[in-house]
Amino acid sequence: MQAVQSKLSVHAVTSYLGVFKEPRGLIRLFQIIFAILAFATACNGRSSTTLDYGGKDDVIASSWSYPYRLSRSAIVLNNGTILGTLSTSNDPKPPAEFFLFTSVMAMLLALTFTFTYVFLNSLYRNNDLFPTLDFFITFIWTIFWLAGSSAWAQGVTNIRSLTDFDNIRQRSGICPSSTICPDGSVANYANLIVSVLFGFLNFVLWLGSLWFVFKETRFFKSHTMQQPQVQAPVYPDIGSPSMQPQSYTQSPVVMT
C-alpha cells in the first residue's frame, strides 16, 4: 500500500513538471539564471588604473570595487602617499546597491514562483489569489528592472568617467599634463558593461512573462468566458445522398 502511495505521489509531482514546457514556467527558469548573472557581474567589477610619474619606479594608482564608493577610493603613490579620492560627489554607490537588490530579489521571487508552479500547482489553479499575486508582483518587478537597469547604466557611465586617466591626473594635484604623467594600466569595465546588458535582458524576460501570467488570472478567464462563441457555418456535402436534386413542376396555364 505504501509503495502504491509513493508511486502516486511521485507521479503527482512529476506531472507538474510539465509547467516547464509552457512559456510561463520556462521563462521563470531563464529569470533565475539571468538574475544570478546580473548580480554576479555587477559585484565582480573590481579594477584599477595607474599612471606613471617621475620614472618607472613612481606610480600613481587607484582601485575600486563593489559597492563602488568612489568618494573613498584613494589615489595613492607607490610610497603610500594619499593624493586624493576619485570623487567627492556623484557617487555610483546607490544605483549599484539598488541594482543588486533588484537582482537578488528577482532571483528569490522567480524561485518562489517556480516552486509554486511545481509543488502547489493544484492550489495555484484553484485559488484565484495566487495567480493575481503572481501577476502584480511580476508587474512591479518589471518596473524595478527597468528603473534599476537604467540607473545602473548611468552609474557605470559615471564610474568610467571618474576613473579615467584625465580625472585621476586632475584630482591627484601633481599631474598637470599627460607629458608628466603618461598613461599606465587601463581599467577593465567588461563585467560592469555586461551587467547592464543582463539587467535590460531581465527586464525583457519579466515583461514577456506578464502576458503568460495574466492568462492564469480570473480577469482574463472571465473575459474569455463572456465572449460569445461564434460557430462556423456547416455546409452540407454535395456528394452525399441527402443532397437530392429538387424537382420543379410547372402548373399548366389555363387559357380562357
Automatic annotation (TrEMBL):
Q: Which parts of the sequence belong to the MARVEL domain? A: 19-218
Q: Which InterPro entries match?
A: Marvel, Synaptophysin/porin
Location comes to: Membrane
Q: How does it sit in the membrane?
A: Multi-pass membrane protein
Its keywords, alphabetically, are: Glycoprotein, Membrane, Transmembrane, Transmembrane helix
Which parts pass through the membrane? 25-42, 98-120, 132-153, 192-214
PROSITE patterns xrefs: MARVEL
A cellular component term from Gene Ontology for this protein is: synaptic vesicle membrane
Protein family per UniProt: Belongs to the synaptophysin/synaptobrevin family.
Q: What protein does this entry describe? A: MARVEL domain-containing protein
Q: Which organism is it from?
A: Adineta ricciae (Rotifer)
